[in-house]
Amino acid sequence: PSPNHELSSPDPKLSLPQKHVHPHFHLS
């Protein structure tokens, strides 16, 4: 998918993956 689609979206995959992909980053 294009980067525009991700930006256009409400970050549905970023909301979950954010803490699922790099939970340390969020805590740091």
Explain this structure to me?
71% of the residues lie in helices and 0% in strands. The mean pLDDT is 56. It starts with a helix and ends with a helix. The chain is mainly alpha-helical. The chain is built from four helices and no strands. Residues 19-28 have a biased composition (Basic residues). Residues 1-28 are annotated as: Disordered.
Q: What percent of the residues sit in helical stretches (DSSP H or I)?
A: over 70%
Largest sheet features:
none
Calculate Rg over CA atoms: 10 Å
Estimate what percentage of residues fall within beta strands.
Answer: under 5%
SSE ordering: HHHH
Shape: elongated
Give the termini separation. 29 Å
Derived from helix and strand composition plus strand pairing, the structural class reads mainly alpha
- Enumerate how many helices there are, as a single number: 4
Identify the quaternary structure here: single chain
Whole-number average pLDDT? Answer: 56
Q: Show unreliable segments.
A: none
Total number of distinct structural domains:
1
**Annotation, overall tally of beta strands:** 0
